[in-house]
Amino acid sequence: MLLISDLTDGPDPVLCIPDPSADAAARARHVDEAVLCDARWRLPEDAPRMRAGLAVLPVGPSDAGPVGVRAALGELVRAGVTAVVASAPNGGVHPGDTAHPGDPGEEPVRELCEEAGRAGVPVLLPTGDRDPGETLHRLLRRQLAVEREKAQATARVLTLSATSLEQAEGPERLLREVAALTGGTLTLVEPGDAGWQRLATEQPRALEQLRCGRVRTAVVPCDGRELVLHAVGQDRPHRVLAALRTGGWPPHLRRLLAQTAGQAALLDRSVRHRQDREVLRAALWGVRVSVLQYLMLGSWEGAVRLAEPLARLGGAAESGGGGEVLGARRAVVAVLQCAPGEDRDGATAACEAATGGGALVVPCPAEPRHVIVVLPQERGSGGGAVTLLRPLVGQVPGRLAGVSGPRPWSQTSSAYEAAVRGLTAAGHGAERIVRDFGSAPLVASLSPGARGWARRVCAGLRKLTEEQRAQAVPTARRALSYGALRAGRLLGVDRTTANKRLRLVLEAMGLDHRQVTHRAVADLAFQLADLPEPEPADHAPDTAPRGLRALLRERPVVEWAARELSALDAPEGPAPDGDPLGDSARRLARPRSTALMELEGGNVPAEPHAGGAGAELSHPSASGGGEEGGGVGGRRMLAVWLGHNCRAGATAAALGIHRNTLAARLPAVGARLRLPLGDPGAAPYQVLWLLVAAGEIPVTAVPDPVAASR
């Protein structure tokens, strides 16, 4: 389709309008087809009817034309001709010929102009000396050129729309491009914004019809220009594409506007879909974090109830596999530490891809570089999880991972602690991923009578109301394990609340939450209280309950401390056979579940484990040798550190070293013990029990609320 102005305007016009008084409506008339009529002005047999046709009429001597000009022109109009071109067979008709009498073609052209004027059909003349065949040829070439330009404009719109769609852009860039192509002004207005209010003031009826969906397009005059309003999208109330152009919008530009409105709706829907997806993704992350928080509190039932919406989403990859994971009886917890500067979202996506959607993958709410992965035991025992995650760790230099052994859901918190311990050791291993085999805990070496001591310590919690116990005790236990800040983030409470609950619980137990030794006693009491009661036949009743200080002097406890502290005495060097853990570590580090099973049966072996733990955590010493680097010097540094309530400044002053030196040496010594001493939490408690049992710290330094209450 082209306009008559496309044929008459420009640097190289094909036709001209002989009547200078022809109105703009005639020039804006569009043409779809162009044909050459015979000498009697009849259409070709293969085109008996036309749609917005342009007929080239041969004109010549009076006896060579049609019998009646009016009748022939009427037939052409009824057949769909909207404009005619008068062209002499010898090319003798030029602009102004009607004003030069005596020309052989003068009379037919004058009569044609008169009759065409009555019928409302514009008459055009070819430019130059061209016969009807040449005139038609030029018309078709011009039509082809115009159609090519329009097709290129449409292709440009579609290409730009596709590019914007790939780049997740909105429709703004597309509207600017179409405005430049058409010479108009395009604006996308929404109900309620300033542009909408202006249009509602100027064109209230048309805008209301578009908004309600009664019409899709409206054309109205606006300050001497033509305003086209086009509804965008399918959702009501519709947004509106407002297009304003001087000289009006011809049909082909209106079609371009309709295409633009459709593409704008597609782009806008894409942007809104991406925004909705981000909102949904954030909500899913929130649900996953809440599921993890329930698990950390030991509430498997609450986690299952909360994970039900994830299961209803259908896709495991999208929902995070929460239902599948929680359907297992036991789970393995892994903690992936991102490389310095790495985007955690990318690492989280990599974990989801590696686990195939069959794991609960949660960006750790407490540590900005950690990703927590909870795998069902069926998907990975501790070793299977290491195999699954090892390629993931190797993909990016600087990534580290720690993996726990299988744990029941009630021990998810301890599994997380084990994974963190493995992560601490991974920083000093060749493969950068370590499974924590469970360093033998103090509770595994204490006699069964220690549980009676723990019950008496925890009896003070009866001073609290049931509501206080339900809220404060789980938070306090996590605060003891991870520190108030990390526990608060893991459980979804602020640090102040976590500290208040910790103080409330420890005061009820007769302890001071500000002192590390008091916190260690509370943590030990909670661990012992979690253990099941031994069989009555396994031990005699506690006729004379023992205090904590007496329990810490028992031979199994002393031997346990000697075994664990031997890691500080062992020479540093690479593990044999390239094993990052070392065979000796596997002999030394008993799985926590095994130790607990032995304790539950009341049969704790008295013989020490063979070997040492030095190869398991070997790494270059932070001190480069010397007194405080390892061996007895390391023990002294730890004892002074605990003696000053783990305050770095006071400890460094007492040791005569710089505070930064202490900050570097503590994690290095802790790594040999497989304890994250650089992080707040339960690691100092383990060091305290080791040093007290080994005689490095007087047993009287440990408070005993049971003995104090006698």
Can you put this structure into words, describing what you see?
The chain is built from 29 helices and 17 strands. The chain is of the alpha+beta class and 710 residues long. Strands 12, 13, 14, 15, 16 and 17 form a six-stranded mixed sheet that branches. β13 and β14 form a beta hairpin. The chain starts with a strand and ends with a helix.
Give short descriptive properties of this protein.
5-stranded mixed beta sheet, alpha+beta, 6-stranded mixed beta sheet, 710 residues, 29 helices, 50% helix
- The share of residues in extended strands comes to 5-15%
Described by the principal axes of the CA atoms, the overall outline is rod-shaped
Percent of residues in helices comes to 40-55%
Return Rg in Å: 44 Å
Q: Decide which structural class fits the backbone.
A: alpha+beta
Flag low-confidence runs.
95-105, 314-319, 573-632
For the residues shown, what is the average pLDDT? 78
Largest sheet: 6 strands, mixed
Distance between the termini: 105 Å
What is the tally of helical segments?
A: 29
Number of strands: 17
